[in-house]
Amino acid sequence: MVGKLIGRFFEKDKTIESYDQWLKRAYYKDRMEGLIRWRDQEESDLYDNVDIRRRLNKIRSLRKRKDDQGLLFVLNEGIHGNMGGMGNPLLHAKARTGTKNLIIEYVDEIVSAMLHLAHVKEPVISLEEKIDFFHRASHCYGRSALMLSGGGQLGNFHLGVLKAIIEQQLLPKIISGSSAGSIFAALLGTYTDERLIRFFKKENLKGEIRNEADIFEGMFKSRGSITVKNLETTLKRLIPDLTFQEAYEMTGRSINISVAPAEAYQKSRMLNAISSPNVFIRSAVMASCAIPGVFPPVTLYAKNKEGETQPYLPSRKWVDGSMYNDLPSKRLTRMYGVNHFIVSMTNPFVLPFVSKKEQSSETLAAIRRFSKVMVKESAQLNYSMAKKFFKYFPKLALVANNINSVVQQDYTGDINIIADFSVVKPGNLLSKMTFEELESLIRRGEQAAWPKIEAIRTTTKIGKALDQIIDMLDAQEASLATRMLRRNMKGFEEELI
């Protein structure tokens, strides 16, 4: 009873202004409900605590004995995010303040051990051996990605989510965005770290939105619908005139924008610095936001070798990316080796049917999976049977194809930050918003992200450390190669003299 009363008070308390404040109150609530004790207890049927403890003790013992080769051998046995089942989403959903302390200790020890090995001097472990080990470890461990869904004006919820994640320095290097989500993915990919930090500072966010980025200028003055001109003006002010390749070289972040074909039976695309390096990000976002029936289809534009702008695939036009690939998890896996997905979900057409699966019991999760499969198979069967009829009605075929594509998609990841559907009325999804409405929506996004921060921190810590170590070692290798080249050139010049 006490726990329920505390919970109601906690959820409705509007005096919480920061994650630190939220975490202090979350700790108090966890303690009152016995969840701090649950975190301290290693035993659980949700993971193999015995194996995790054994490996943790082994690594600590090797480090204490300064057995670097032995440590390298043990880490070579496997570094992955689900060792002993510790990646089970239920482990990260029970307590607000984090998962089992044993798991946190194990992750911290793995990171410390990797950083130690990365700095071991030769000849104990050679640079070549380090590079080989850490690249293999990264390949086996996989990578994390942040996926931002579509959602019309509800997509502004993403700003609050991003604010919370960036303030904790937890932003993944791989980001995807569809429809409204593509706007914020583009922002992440074209703003330097310094500009992002400045943009999302509490005291600057309102001014940054109005003055620097000026995202919603002119949209607060009336309740009319957003026009193509509104959207073009917004994107021009918000997104620098960069190609995907130029943006990647500037920020080091791989942004991916989904677009769908305007014609039936064509394939959707995920645009990025690998598949379409010369495409302008702004044109990709414009296409991804082109909701069928609301905005006209869009031609993509790219920079040619002379630096001039020209149409990209001029015979094709593109529309809202969320129709076919709102969350392009399979493509991200194939292209980048991503196996861990953080989702910010605002798509109004699927929000009522999306569950926070990491908070579900295993039985309920199984029932939901079965129901989802049945719905998808039924929709696919009906669509396949109706295809012959649709060939006589091309426009109807396109509508049916879009509906089937929406039904067939997966809309959840490993960590899901889900918008409250009540924050914006469905009829107003394409309406201009007042500043107060926008501010409230961003605030709700931030509040929705706070309960997920510790799960994101724990599940991405090893991958983040691997990326940093690999960057450091690759830089050392490049520096060594440069020094060797200079030495050889000097020797060659001396021979000529």
Give me the strand/helix succession: HHHHHHHEHEHHHHHEEHEEEHHEHHEHH
Domains counted in the coordinates: how many? 3
Number of strands: 9
Q: Main sheet, how many strands, which sense, barrel?
A: 7 strands, mixed
Query: pLDDT average, as an integer?
Result: 82
- Give the CA-based shape: globular
Q: What is the radius of gyration?
A: 25 Å
| Spatial gap, N to C terminus | 90 Å
Low-confidence stretches: 1-10, 211-223, 363-387, 395-404
Structural class given helices, strands, pairing?
alpha/beta
Report the total helices: 20
Helix fraction bin: 40-55%
Strand percentage, roughly? Answer: 5-15%
Task: Name the quaternary structure.
Answer: single chain
Q: What does it look like?
A:
By secondary structure, the chain is α/β, with parallel strands linked by helices. It folds into three domains: 34-141, no CATH class; 143-354 and 413-453, no CATH class; 358-410. Helices cover 55% and strands 9% of the residues. The protein contains 20 helices and nine strands. The chain is globular. Mean pLDDT is 82; it is low at 1-10, 211-223, 363-387 and 395-404.
